[in-house]
Amino acid sequence: MKLREIAHSRTGDKGNISVISVIAYKPEDFPMIKEKVTAQAVKDYFKEIVHGKVTRYELPNIHALNFVMEDALGGGVTRSLAVDMHGKALGFALLEMEV
User: Fold this and answer.
1) What angle is formed at CA 87 by the lines to CA 81 and CA 91, rounded to 5 degrees?
2) Would you state the torsion angle of the CA atoms of residues 20, 22, 45, 80, taken in this order, to the nearest 10 degrees?
3) CA–CA gap between residue 35 and residue 32 (Å, rounded)
4) What is the mean pLDDT of residues 55-84?
5) Is the model's pLDDT at 69 over the cut of 90?
6) Cβ(82)–Cβ(74) under 8 Å?
7) N or C: which end of the chain has fewer CB within 10 A?
8) Is residue 47 in a domain?
9) Single pTM value for the model
């Protein structure tokens, strides 16, 4: 199944860092999301975009994972030639991941 079937996402960015939160719709789906959506899985999924480290933070009280992706936005808003230099679409892209 696609991650979007069991979770939603929020995103943010600062400079060349993109942050994606993945939040389970139902608490019972959170353990599976934790198992499948690892920092390495996210790094591999975005291998063409993310050239730095991916760090995962767990927020179990709200059934969410937060991923900080370094060197992910082509230099950031003022330097990138990307159409979506803020990285807002990366959250939607991650929700297309098969889990």
Assistant:
1) 150
2) -20
3) 5
4) 82
5) yes
6) yes
7) N
8) yes
9) 0.87
